[in-house]
Amino acid sequence: MECDYRMSTSLIQRFVVVGISGLLLAACSPTHGLKPIPPVTGSYHLGAGDQIRILTYNDPQLSNSFSVSDAGTIAFPLLGTVTAAGQTPSDFAAFLGNQLGTRGLLHKPSVSVEVMQYRPVFVLGEVQKPGQYNYLPGMTMETVVALAGGYTYRAIKNPASVVRTEGTPDGRPMKGKISEETYLAPGDVITIYERFF
Predict the structure, then answer these.
(1) Which helix or strand (DSSP H or E) is residue 171 part of?
(2) Which of 17, 94, 101, 119 has the fewest CB atoms found within 10 Å of its own CB?
(3) What is the per-residue pLDDT across 5-42, written as a single tens digit (0 to 9) for each?
(4) pLDDT of 144
């Protein structure tokens, strides 16, 4: 009976040590204190680095590919420098059509805007090939890790952290934690952390 008591005491001590270790590790986690990042909602808004194609029907000279500059603008024929950043592709198409019509440059212009290449996402930390990768709609953290060659053997797979500017309430960068299933937004910077045990 005494032997059973000692074994039970030893087992209890192990559970206590494991429990305390787990709490300490959770408190020391790189993502400790970060809230989950809010999901991406609403329509896509253009931003610096996007490659867009503008089609002006019945006027091929006003149809071309453009890169949104760091200032969020493009140089559009006949209109000059116009701001694209912050607008959805359909809103930007309506804006261009309105400008061409009200300035008397085209009669009832019909304009469409499509994104040819989105701003990249960036992966840092414990992946095989950290760097920038082309964003695709529907991309998750797991997708971009796969593009980066997968996790290293020391990676903490869940959670990771992200710095996001797309769709934030005031347009300022927001930091939060994400899991493998979290949908990404263009321009996201993801950090995969290293475990120390």
Answers:
(1) none
(2) 17
(3) 454 555 445 544 444 444 444 445 676 777 888 787 77
(4) 96
DSSP code per residue over 4-52: HHHHHHHHHHHHHHHHHHHHHHHHT-TTTTPPBPPPP-SS----TT-EE
CA distance 191 to 33: 15
How many angstroms separate the CA atoms of 98 and 96, rounded? 5
150 token code pair:
């997968």
Measure the CA–CA gap between 77 and 65, rounded to whole angstroms: 12
Query: Which is nearest to 75 in space by CA: 67, 119, 95, 97?
Result: 67
Token couple for 173: 């960068």
pLDDT in tens, 99-131: 999 998 888 899 999 999 999 999 999 999 999
Q: Which amino acid is at 85?
A: A
**DSSP letter, residue 178:** E
State pTM to two decimals: 0.72
The one-character DSSP state at 160 is: E
Whether the Cβ atoms of residue 185 and residue 167 lie closer than 8 Å to each other: yes
Asked if residues 66 and 77 have their Cβ atoms less than 8 Å apart, the reply is no
Place of tokens 């927001």: 174
Contact 49, 119 (CB under 8 A): yes
Q: Which residue has the tokens 């206590």?
A: 16
| Spatial CB neighbours of 10, under 8 Å, sequence gap ≥ 6 | none
